[in-house]
Design brief:
Layout: H1 3-10, E1 18-24, H2 28-39, E2 46-52, H3 59-66, E3 72-75, H4 81-91, E4 96-99, E5 105-106, H5 110-120, E6 126-134, E7 140-144, H6 151-156, E8 166-168, H7 169-175, H8 186-194, E9 200-211, H9 217-220, H10 222-239, H11 247-263, H12 270-282, H13 289-296, H14 325-334, H15 340-350, H16 354-368, H17 377-386, H18 390-400, H19 416-423
Parallel strand pairs: 1-2, 1-4, 2-3, 6-9
Antiparallel strand pairs: 4-8, 5-9, 6-7, 6-8
Helix pairs in contact: 2-3, 10-11, 11-12, 11-13, 13-14, 14-15, 14-16, 15-17, 16-18, 17-18
Length: 435
């Protein structure tokens, strides 16, 4: 029975109560849109709390305007993000819990869809869905559709977008609240803590928008994620308890974070970068430069936005664990993330000698078979004019004649209202009109 049938058959009082907590601090610019996106949800048994950390930017006035529609709110100094969520969850009475940060947005029908999933899948205790990533002005710049769930994939990357997550109260009662000392990876740690005892479920529907802006932790504090996650993995693997055991899973967890630290020229001390390089070499099956490059450039969703976390030139430092510049050039080119400045640096590096030029030509021929390189044909032409031997120039011209363009998700560039219309979500203006 779907949730709509359940409503008609039993009435609203039989629906499980859902508690949503919004933690906030100095987020007046986005807070009201977040609150409206919750209050305009088409779900009748909702408990909604706003926990503010003592903001002085007008947030309290915004909350007071909405207080008649809130179940509870408070504004007082707290110990941070996780503490604010925990304060709300500890007061909650819902059978299903969630938290929505004060710059993120629920899409129409998100809560109803999550409850419907739980009603149809009684064994699932945590559900997550698809999300769009939006800029400060609400335009989509990336789409997150998670891969099939596995422990190894979760260790490689937190592919679950936090605002799409709803969980049964039983998870909170079993695990407790969020861990306060992990300021940037508090949600990721919770999912990893839940894995040994919890069944996750995937809802193939867009349920939330995660906003990226210059003051958000996801952008302003980007370097802290690697530090947080390495500390988290050190704790997990030191316990030696399943499923967090074995060299393969350790490698899956540590490689992306250590590679990021090695390749990032700002934000980390020389000692941190040297330690990260040393730990890379000690992993089971030490990684090649191609692997490191691939891991670092996996942050490509930020390219073309104001939030790009990496200086592309710094990727050339990724040969620390395996000094092979040709693999770096190959990895960058295959991922189509090279800008002109990095292309010139990389090609200069790869054309220092006759042997290097020969390998570069071989590389160019191999790249010709990769359709995604067509999108970067311009830099191959530019590089060919400046430094490359004539075979590379000829290959570059052939690449430039190709018409293939990289696929762009149809939601990229749209506003949230346009996303809702395109996806057939009800009440396209939910979260944007006065409730």
């Amino acid at each position: 029975m779907g949730l709509g049938d359940h409503l008609q058959a039993s009435g609203n009082e039989s629906l499980p109560r859902v508690t949503v907590v919004t933690p906030s601090f100095q987020q007046a610019a986005y807070l009201d849109v977040t609150i409206r996106s919750v209050l305009t949800q088409d779900y009748p048994n909702l408990e909604y709390m706003v926990v503010d950390g003592g903001s002085t930017d007008g947030s309290v006035e915004l909350i007071r305007r909405r207080e008649s529609a809130l179940s509870w709110w408070i504004s007082e100094p707290d110990r941070g993000h996780a503490h604010a969520v925990n304060k709300g969850w500890e007061r909650s009475t819902g059978e299903i819990l969630a938290f929505l940060n004060s710059d993120d947005v629920y899409l129409p029908g998100a809560i109803r869809a999550a409850v419907d999933f739980f009603l149809q899948c009684p064994d699932a205790e945590i559900v997550y869905g698809d999300a769009v990533h939006i800029t400060e002005d609400g335009r989509v710049f990336n789409v997150s559709v998670p891969p099939p769930f596995s422990v190894e994939r979760m260790l490689e990357s937190c592919f679950i977008t936090q605002p799409t997550v709803f969980l049964r109260r039983s998870v909170f009662e079993r695990l407790g609240g969020l861990t306060e000392h992990l300021g940037h990876s508090l949600d990721y740690e919770y999912w990893l803590r839940a894995i040994p005892t919890t069944q996750f479920g995937y809802l193939p529907r867009f349920t939330a928008a995660a906003r990226y802006h210059t003051t958000a932790k996801s952008t302003a504090g980007y370097n802290e994620f690697a530090r947080d996650e390495i500390r988290l993995f050190d704790e997990l693997f030191s316990r030696g308890k399943p499923p967090y055991t074995g060299p393969d899973l350790e490698r899956a967890a540590y490689l992306p974070r250590l590679a990021f630290m090695v390749a990032r020229l700002s934000g980390y001390t020389e000692k941190e970068r040297a330690d990260a390089a040393e730990r890379l070499k000690r992993l089971a099956f030490p990684p090649t430069a191609e692997e490191i490059t691939t891991q670092v450039t996996d942050n490509r969703m930020y390219l073309g936005t104001p939030y790009r976390p990496l200086d592309p030139s710094s990727l050339l430092a990724a040969h620390v664990a395996d000094p092979d510049p040709y693999m770096i050039v190959a990895g960058l080119a295959e991922l189509s993330v090279i800008d002109d400045r990095t292309a010139r640096l990389a090609l200069t590096l790869a054309t220092d000698s006759r042997s290097a030029r020969q390998q570069t030509v071989a590389l160019a021929r191999a790249l010709l078979r990769q359709p995604q390189i067509a999108s970067r044909a311009s830099w191959w032409l530019e590089a060919g004019k400046r430094a490359a031997p004539w075979p590379l120039r000829r290959i570059a011209r052939r690449v430039a004649r190709r018409t293939w363009q990289p696929a762009v998700h149809p939601l990229v560039g749209l506003s949230l209202d346009e996303v809702c219309v395109r996806q057939g979500l009800t009440d396209a203006n939910a979260g944007h009109e006065e409730p």
